[in-house]
Design brief:
- It is a single chain.
- By secondary structure, this protein is of the alpha+beta class.
- Helix content is 32%, strand content 31%.
- It has a seven-stranded mixed β-sheet with strand order 1-2-3-4-5-7-6, sandwiched between helices.
- Helix 1 crosses helix 3.
- The longest helix is centred in the N-terminal third of the chain and has 16 residues.
- It is globular.
- Bound molecules: coenzyme A (COA).
Length: 173
């Protein structure tokens, strides 16, 4: 069922609470069958909001709003947190289920990649759980598997894949 058009804009500091709320909801929708419930029980908007305030101060966060001006999608990126920022990283891209499959994910993805490209990064990485079917979205848009690692979430060991996406101006791999 179509959920109607969304408006994309850069988030402002006042959006931190709404982003934290939608993050928890989209994580629940995405990971309920992958990560044990215990992990979700300890999440709260209050605990996550300060992290978003910090992210918003550091770089752009893009959001999409539905027709009632509720945030239903968020995405952000920045320097790679692992390898001395020699490339960019897509930190997060989450749509509520109700808004998936209408081209919005790709639009947000493009916003983040364009921002990273403008900042001079030749590529970006994105890490995603192997059990998350959304990882095929990154494969669809040029992501090449570069590593896999084991991570713990909610007391369970999970496999995480890291993909690299080369930007068009980049000629080597
Ligand atoms: C993955 C996600 C961001 C895609 O956004 P979306 O709005 O549903 O996707 P779009 O409608 O923009 O799709 C654009 C294209 O990608 C394809 N696509 C979308 N999801 C896909 C998937 N899981 N696997 C393969 N291809 C996919 C679409 O078919 C479409 O192809 P087309 O250009 O040939 O028509 C979204 O489904 C999502 O938020 N998933 C849950 C959260 C999540 O797991 N995020 C990633 C965590 S790192």
């Amino acid at each position: 069922m179509k959920s109607g058009p969304v408006t994309i804009r850069r988030a402002v500091m006042e959006d931190a609470g709404a982003i934290a709320r939608i993050q928890i909801k989209s994580w629940q929708e995405t990971y309920r069958k992958i990560i044990p419930d215990a992990y979700f029980d300890q999440l709260s908007q209050e605990k996550r909001e300060p992290g978003w305030r910090k992210s918003l101060a550091e770089g752009p966060v893009f959001v999409a709003l539905d027709q009632t001006n509720e945030i239903v999608v968020f995405a952000n990126g920045g320097p790679n947190r692992e390898n001395d920022a020699t490339e960019g990283e897509l930190y997060a891209l989450y749509l509520l289920k109700s808004h998936q499959g209408q081209g919005t994910g790709k639009r947000l993805f493009d916003h983040v990649l364009e921002d990273l490209g403008r900042k001079g990064f030749p590529s970006c990485i994105v890490s995603v759980l192997a059990d998350n079917p959304s990882r095929h979205f990154y494969e669809r848009f040029g992501g090449r598997l570069v590593s896999e690692q084991s991570i713990a979430r909610g007391g369970k060991q999970l496999v995480e894949y890291t993909y690299r996406i080369l930007f068009e101006s980049s000629s080597d791999s």
